[in-house]
Write a structure and sequence with these properties.
The structure holds two protein chains of two kinds. Chain A is α/β, with parallel strands linked by helices. Chain A has helices at 40-47, 69-74, 91-99, 107-116, 130-142, 160-173, 188-194, 212-218, 253-260, 271-280; strands at 2-10, 16-24, 29-33, 55-60, 63-64, 76-79, 148-152, 180-185, 197-202, 205-211, 220-224, 238-241, 246-250, 265-268. In chain A, strands 6-7-8-3-9-10 form a six-stranded mixed sheet, with helices on both faces. In chain A, helix 4 (107-116) runs antiparallel to helix 5. By secondary structure, chain B is mainly alpha-helical. Classes of the chains: A alpha/beta, B mainly alpha.
């Protein structure tokens, strides 16, 4: 469905995406996580050919994303991190503009989502709240029978009720095994609910891209007394220390168990733990 | 192509204030500008109307930062540029019809004695519009709406000032200056060649631009 190989892009300002690779298969949801400024939006813009890559390849539906740009975009539903629609237009006017470009635009589907999301087609886009704009953006993305939904921070800045609503919609979409969803976020709790795969980017590099369950199984949070850290710091991916103890992230539980025996407490790590400690380091 | 024109026309006539602006342009020009030759006024109205049809969508793109959205639609960048260049002819035709009807009404109601169709001025307007578009479009496709607006404003002002000046001294674009060296088919061929070169430059610039 989506395959990225050795993709690189360097900005004049210095930031770069360094030789990244990952793959999303049909029928799955992939969460694309990383702190702000890690390269999530850049990667998504590269997939959408909004930015020009320096090297590497991007294949969507098995096709090169530049040579087959039109066919590919016809099958992608794209949701933006912020509003990029004409603010002075009404929802209906904006829909009429967008609909003309898609070969499989479905007005019935769009009207269904208008009712489902409680959106008034006559309302001007500038009068919509952030949550409503996101729902409108979703309605557009879901009304042309897209096979791949790409979303850039769709839940950012939304309250938990809105976020849960959006996650429910995504969960319903994925019931069709021919569709896939690729979405970036830094709200990792959203992914724990619905993602099948997690790709973690930091500083323009992919730290891992694996099945969520495998990731959650392999990482652990270790808690113990600060004296245990002496000579053992390199056993942790990231550490947080206080006067009374430490917390560290590991992906080698057996090594920790053999080194510290029963002197430490070992707990399951959340995606947030993995992200925070991986970014922080030692 | 139809999708692009549909977008442009939706934006141009998107709301009441936008429609009022469009309806006011011709009377404002007739009342404010001191153009001694009425056929020059017709030329100016045609050029300005085409210019407004072309530039309004760019202005909306600047205000709402919609480039990412438009470029995520199923449309190749090359097509985006090509449609923009082709749309000039469509908007010129719309401007002839729109101005013709508007000026005919003004004429018939006796408010002012104005020309509502002048083939000679239409022939003069075509190369002028193509040349200005050849400058305007690469600027828009390279720099984006914000910086390109400066180029557009310059061309817009130049058009108005040049037309008034030519009118005042009874000059014609086709009989004076560089234009006088090329008449008839030669002029059109040269202008068309410039337009095609501009199109190729715009495609290159836009295809290699980060949005």
């Amino acid at each position: 469905m989506l395959e990225i190989k050795n993709l690189s892009k360097k900005y004049k300002e210095g930031f770069e995406i360094k030789d990244i690779s990952f793959k999303l298969d049909k029928g799955y949801i992939m969460g694309f996580i990383g702190p702000n400024g890690s390269g999530k939006t850049t990667t998504i813009k590269l997939i959408m050919n909004l930015l020009k890559k320096d090297s590497g390849s991007i294949k969507v539906f098995g096709l090169d994303h530049i040579q087959h740009e039109k066919e590919i975009k016809d099958r992608i539903g794209f949701v933006y991190d912020e509003n990029h629609y004409y603010e002075d237009l009404s929802i209906r006017q904006m829909k009429n503009i967008v609909a003309k470009f898609y070969s499989k635009w479905d007005d019935k589907q769009f009207n269904y989502y208008m009712k489902e999301f409680d959106l008034n087609p006559k309302a001007k886009i500038k009068t919509l709240s952030k949550g409503m704009k996101m729902k409108f953006s979703l309605a557009i993305a879901l009304s042309h029978h897209a096979d791949l939904i790409i979303m850039d921070e769709p839940t950012s800045g939304l309250d938990p009720v809105f976020r849960r609503g959006i996650l429910d919609i995504l969960y319903n979409i994925i019931q069709d095994e021919n569709k896939s969803i690729f979405f970036s976020t830094h709200i990792t709790t959203d992914l724990e609910k619905i993602a099948d795969y997690i790709t973690f980017i930091n500083g323009g590099e992919i730290l891992f891209s694996e099945a969520k369950d495998k990731i959650l199984d392999s990482y652990r949070i270790v808690k113990g007394s600060p004296r245990l850290l002496q000579g053992n710091r390199d056993k942790f991916i990231g550490l947080r220390e206080t006067d009374v103890g430490f917390e560290g992230l590991t992906n080698d539980v057996s090594q920790i168990e053999s080194s510290f025996s029963n002197e430490v407490l070992i707990e399951k790590a959340s995606l947030e733990d993995i992200m925070v400690y991986s970014v922080r380091g030692e | 192509m139809l999708g692009t024109i549909n977008r442009d026309l939706t934006l141009i006539f998107s709301n009441k204030s936008q429609m009022i602006i469009m309806l006011s342009i011709i009377p404002i020009y007739l009342l404010v500008l001191d153009v001694s030759q009425m056929e020059r006024m017709y030329f100016l109205i045609l050029v300005i109307m085409t210019y407004i049809f072309l530039m309004t969508p760019f202005a909306f793109d600047m205000k709402s930062q919609t480039l990412s959205m438009m470029n995520s639609l199923p449309l190749r960048r090359k097509d985006t540029v090509l449609y923009r260049y082709l749309s000039v002819f469509v908007y010129f035709l719309i401007s002839i019809i729109y101005s013709g009807i508007y000026l005919w009404i003004i004429n018939k109601t006796g408010l002012m004695d104005v020309e509502y169709f002048n083939l000679k001025m239409i022939k003069e307007a075509i190369p002028y519009i193509l040349i200005t578009a050849s400058i305007m479009f690469p600027a828009n496709f390279k720099f984006g709406p914000r910086l390109a607006q400066i180029v557009n404003a310059f061309l817009f002002s130049f058009t108005a000032v040049a037309t008034i000046t030519l009118s005042r001294y009874g000059l014609s674009l086709s009989t004076k200056g560089i234009m006088s060296l090329m008449k008839g088919p030669t002029l059109f061929l040269v202008v068309l060649a410039i337009y095609l070169i501009s199109l190729i430059i715009s495609i290159r610039l836009y295809e290699n631009r980060d949005l």
